[in-house]
């Protein structure tokens, strides 16, 4: 009995039969229609019950989705519904959407001929990393009369695993290595200086630089020969992610920590393609994960698994502890990309001595985020005195952040100040620029 539910059509017919009965008290000539109406509805109910539980078989339901979903990206989820019976069926599907989608009104109605299949697709954009679950799916099967619906409940035991954006990582890889840099915002960087490793001596080709001519080899071969160089490889790059409370700020549904994690995964993939070694540190009020720099392909999988489990804390970050830990673990000069966020000059001044210590032995790049809400607020036209002063305060905070970035640059600390959604492009451009200039 729990599988049976009465449809709207049944209540409409039952209400019509009640109206006919009521009219029979006014005109006794039509009282016989009342009995026919109720007996007819009862007969149709019996036919529906026999049809749904004897003739019709429940619709087969299968859900398809990737094992690892990408944070902040459109992930396709496909449903396959198959009629395994020998008669046509009508049904309604109330899909068990992921809990954080908060979808409660959308459903699908369709009919299937014998042995026919139907595919339904929708997109899921996760806003948090971790393990999530689907809600139960309800399928209501109807017969040709449609007075009764047979309810089937499908529980979703398989969880959803939301990882840092693998889709974004592959997209930037294609943009960078398939000559689509202009469309993605990745700059073409001219190589400066001779900070490259010698590869081979080859014949001169028109267009080669004169200074690359090898005069000794030219005299031996009696033809112009040039030295060919390649970019230095196996350089150390470390991504350092701040997990303090300041990284809990959100933009477009994602926290600053999630943006930093997605960009770290993108940069790690590119560094490995360029044969550089990539490592990882996380910290807050205490030390987090540590991965030594390596250029093995398995390193990307290790980084993905570490990033998957990172969460922000409600404490202020301890930069002194970070500086001591990095000095202990990083023995050779490396590129350190520190993803953090200083919202006022006081927090910067407190952390500045430790940043300068990190800069002494390494090439330090501090990555900070622009506050888009403040930017929007500062451009609004005020309608009262309160909004006027709030706009001035927002503009002051934006100017202070730009001053902090200039202060770090003046002290020899490379700085990236960017919008959260443009972070990956900005980090890649900075990495390519530093590598081309031979500063690494």
Task: Describe the model.
The structure is a single chain. The chain is α/β, with parallel strands linked by helices and 440 residues long. The chain folds into four domains: 50 residues; 104 residues, Immunoglobulin-like (Sandwich); 231 residues, von Willebrand factor, type A domain (Rossmann fold, 3-Layer(aba) Sandwich); 28 residues, no CATH class. Helix content is 39%, strand content 26%. The strands form six sheets. Strands 18-17-14-19-20-21 form a six-stranded mixed beta sheet, with helices on both faces. A five-stranded antiparallel beta sheet has the order 1-10-9-5-6. Strands 2-4-7 form a three-stranded antiparallel beta sheet, with no helix packed on it. It is elongated. It starts with a strand and ends with a helix.
Low-pLDDT stretches:
none
Question: What is the domain total for the residues?
Answer: 4
Estimated share of beta-strand residues: 25-35%
Q: Give the strand order, joined by hyphens, for the main sheet.
A: 18-17-14-19-20-21
The amount of helix comes to 25-40%
Rounded to an integer, what's the Rg over CA atoms?
33 Å
How is the quaternary structure best described?
single chain
Let me know the average pLDDT.
84
The largest sheet is: 6 strands, mixed
CATH homologous superfamily of the largest domain? von Willebrand factor, type A domain
CATH class of the largest domain: Alpha Beta
CATH architecture grouping of the largest domain: 3-Layer(aba) Sandwich
Number of helices: 12
**Anisotropy-based shape:** elongated
CATH topology annotation of the largest domain? Rossmann fold
Q: Give the N-to-C terminal Cα separation.
A: 72 Å
């Amino acid at each position: 009995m729990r599988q049976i539910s009465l449809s709207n059509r049944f209540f409409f017919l039952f209400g019509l039969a009640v109206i006919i009965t009521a009219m029979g008290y006014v005109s006794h000539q039509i009282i016989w229609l009342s009995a026919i109406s109720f007996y007819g509805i009862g007969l149709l109910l019996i036919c529906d019950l026999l049809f749904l539980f004897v003739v019709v078989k429940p619709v087969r339901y299968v859900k398809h989705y990737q094992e690892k979903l990408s944070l902040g990206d459109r992930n396709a989820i496909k449903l396959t519904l198959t009629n395994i019976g020998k008669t046509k069926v009508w049904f309604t599907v109330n899909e068990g959407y992921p809990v954080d989608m908060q979808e409660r009104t959308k459903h699908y109605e369709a009919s299937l001929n014998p042995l026919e299949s139907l595919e339904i697709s929708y997109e899921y954009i996760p806003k948090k990393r971790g393990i999530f679950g689907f809600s139960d799916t309800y399928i209501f099967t109807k017969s040709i009369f449609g007075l009764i619906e047979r309810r089937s409940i499908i529980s979703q035991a398989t969880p959803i695993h939301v990882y840092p954006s693998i889709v974004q990582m592959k997209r930037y890889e294609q943009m960078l290595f398939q000559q689509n840099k202009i469309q993605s915002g990745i700059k073409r960087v001219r190589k400066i200086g001779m900070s490259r490793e010698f590869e081979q001596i080859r014949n001169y080709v028109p267009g080669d630089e004169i200074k690359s001519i090898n005069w000794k080899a030219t005299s031996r071969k009696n033809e112009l020969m040039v030295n060919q160089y390649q970019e230095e490889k196996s350089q150390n790059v470390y991504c350092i992610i701040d997990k303090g409370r300041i990284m809990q700020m959100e933009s477009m549904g994602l926290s600053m920590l999630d943006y930093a994690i997605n960009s770290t995964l993108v940069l790690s993939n590119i560094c490995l393609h360029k044969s550089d070694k990539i490592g990882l540190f996380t910290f807050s009020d205490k030390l987090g994960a540590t991965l030594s720099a390596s250029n093995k392909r398995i390193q990307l999988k290790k980084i993905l698994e570490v990033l998957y489990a990172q969460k922000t804390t409600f404490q202020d970050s301890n930069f002194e502890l970070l500086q001591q830990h990095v000095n202990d673990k990083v023995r050779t000069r490396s590129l350190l990309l520190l993803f953090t966020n200083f919202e006022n000059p006081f927090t910067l001044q407190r952390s500045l001595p430790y940043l300068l210590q990190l800069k002494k032995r390494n090439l330090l790049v501090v990555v900070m985020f622009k506050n888009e809400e403040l930017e929007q607020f500062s451009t609004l036209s005020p309608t009262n005195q309160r909004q006027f002063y709030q706009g001035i305060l927002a503009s002051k905070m934006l100017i202070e952040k730009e001053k902090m970035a200039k202060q770090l640059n003046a002290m020899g600390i490379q700085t990236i100040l960017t919008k959260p959604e443009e972070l990956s492009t900005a980090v890649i451009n900075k990495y390519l620029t530093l590598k081309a200039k031979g500063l690494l």
